[in-house]
Amino acid sequence: MSKLSKDILFLIFEELQDDSKSFFSCLIVNRFWCETVIPILWKNPWCYNINYKNKNYLFSTIAFYLSADDIKEFLTRHGTQLPSVSSKSLSFDYLSFCSSINIDIINDIISIGSSLAYNQFLLQQEFYKLFMKKCPRLKYLDINSINHQIFYFPEANIRLESLCELQCNTSIDPLYFYGLARFCQHIQRLITVNVSSKSNHGIAKLIEVQRNLKYFEWNDDFEDIDYYTDDPYKEILIELEKKTNTLNHLKVFFQYVDNYEHTLQLLQEVLVKLHRLKTLTSDFSIFGEQDIKLFFFKELEILDVEYITIYEASIMIGNSGGQLKEISLKPYDFVYYSDNFIEDSLIYIRKIYENCPLIEYLSLVFTPSKDHFIEFEKLLNVCQNLKSLLLIVPKYYKRETEEKILESGKEILELLIKSASTNLREFRFFNDFKFSCKTLEEFLEKWRGRPALTILTSNSIYEGEDYKKLINKYKDDGVIKNFSYESITNTENMDFKI
Fold first, then answer.
1. InterPro entries, from UniProt (predicted)?
2. HSE of 407 in the Cβ direction (CA atoms, 13 Å)?
3. What confidence score (pLDDT) does residue 3 get?
């Protein structure tokens, strides 16, 4: 019975990790709870919403493992302030639970010991050695600010063999990636920030040696490309093309790929071959309608794309295999770039309820017309798994009278009450939808008894006193969980949570 209780507590505590305050409070309930929390806490101690620069106890805990007197004496002689620790052993072997290293956060913690760059360099070296020695199975490594070739440390080859996720950037010397490639051949998630227009042969080599790469993310983060340097994308795409049998999550923003004609063609060829893709997040401004018709992702579950028209999105939805759970279109003001927007938006809605019975998160392009209301109701009746709905309206409908806009908003809310399933927990909308206080109150009153609703809007009118008073009333009643006025960027981003 005791073991069963611990197993149950373990599952509960794992769910609490995102709520740092509640999670940490579990440590002080009793020793049994503490013994259950500690392995979870120290599995990835860098992921919590705390200020690591001020965490002296974390610095002290790690520094405790610097057991050799000659190392401590050397560091102290150079001005590093090591904590006074008694000879008594720690209550737990904390580092033995750790399976991740975040270089940025460790460097923040190390700054507690000294503000001098040289001293920090020495302390970094000793801390990294500790982690290479003590972490039984290293799963996660973030090397964005690495200063040491950790693969040369004792036992590093054993630790790095088990690495599953690596975060890095292209400013790191290619030789560093060559060193990692020698040991790290089972990386499943590779996340790269590209901060240079120059190619990095080391990252390409690291991709080449991977045996089971499932998730690849690449984000460009530099101002202008240098046309006199090598193509920064070609080698990466050549290696990704060889991983199409294992790769099922692709999140790429190649900002300047269309400057290289052959590389753009290579990117298209890679996408065509990714039949097992489950997640696709990218900028589709570089593709035309004919290109998109070639993409068939029968196992796709998440479609999160920027700069795509609703007609092009409809093509992709039609070419999917009925497994889509999320369709997120960004930025919102691009989706209606079409000469036949009204008809295209009807096609878009139909494609969703015909092909996406499992949809949970949806950006829905909508116009306030009778035909659209009919199709919207069909969608709500079919898509009973829908949890979050973002409604997008084209800007030119702002020419309608205020009365007509409010009337359309009321009809939309009535359809949600009539046909939306109880799974719907979140509703998002931009400035183009407006509801009077009376309409909103009627809607919330009818919503009573369902799961509490989160509402996000980019319309500032809901910051007014009348609306705030109404919203607070239904928050107190448990009808509204959250009601937030957010930027357009946050409102359209399905990953953004209040």
1. LRR_dom_sf
2. 8
3. 55
Q: Say what the pLDDT of residue 86 is.
A: 58
**Chain centroid offset of residue 188 CA:** 16
pLDDT in tens, 289-299: 999 999 999 99
457 three-state secondary structure: strand
Q: For residues 349 and 491, give the distance between their C-alpha atoms in angstroms, rounded to a whole number.
A: 20
Which pLDDT score, from 0 to 100, does residue 203 have? 97
Taking 50 as the pLDDT cut, the residues of the chain under it are 1-2
The structure tokens listed for 170 are 């292209």
Name the phi and psi angles at 451, rounded to 5.
-60, 145
Residue pair 113/79 in contact by the 8 Å Cβ criterion: no
Q: Provide the token pair at 431.
A: 């400035």
Task: Check: CB of residue 34 under 8 Å from CB of residue 23.
Answer: no
DSSP 8-state symbol, 397: G
Structural tokens at position 370: 């009778």
Q: What tokens appear for 224 in the block? A: 């202008």
Per-residue model confidence (pLDDT) at position 339:
76
Nearest in space to 411 (alpha carbons), one of 391, 386, 387: 391
Quote the distance between the C-alpha of residue 475 and its chain's center: 28
- Per 3-state DSSP, the chain is made up of helix, strand and coil in percentages (nearest 5) of 50, 15, 40
Radius of gyration of the chain (CA): 27
Contacts within 8 Å (CB) and 24+ apart, 286-292: 286/254, 286/257, 286/258, 287/312, 289/315, 292/316
pLDDT of amino acid 168: 95
| Residues paired with 484 in a beta bridge | 456
Q: What is the pLDDT of residue 399?
A: 63
- Residue 474, C-beta contacts closer than 8 angstroms, at least 6 positions apart: 444, 480
- pLDDT tens readout for residues 9-44: 777 777 777 777 777 787 778 888 888 888 888 888
Q: CB atoms < 10 A from the CB of 273, how many? A: 16
User: H/E element holding 126?
Assistant: helix 117-134
3-state secondary structure 235-291: HHHHHHHCCCCCCCEEEEECCCHHHCHHHHHHHHHHHHHCCCCCEEEEECCCCCHHH
Neighbouring C-beta atoms of residue 469, cutoff 10 Å: 10
Q: 113 and 120 in contact (C-beta within 8 Å)?
A: yes
168 DSSP β-pair partners:
192
b/e for 383-416, b at 16 or more Cβ within 10 A? beebbbbbbbbbeebeeeeeeebbebbbebbbbb
CA-CA distance, 411 to 426, in Å (whole number)? Answer: 18
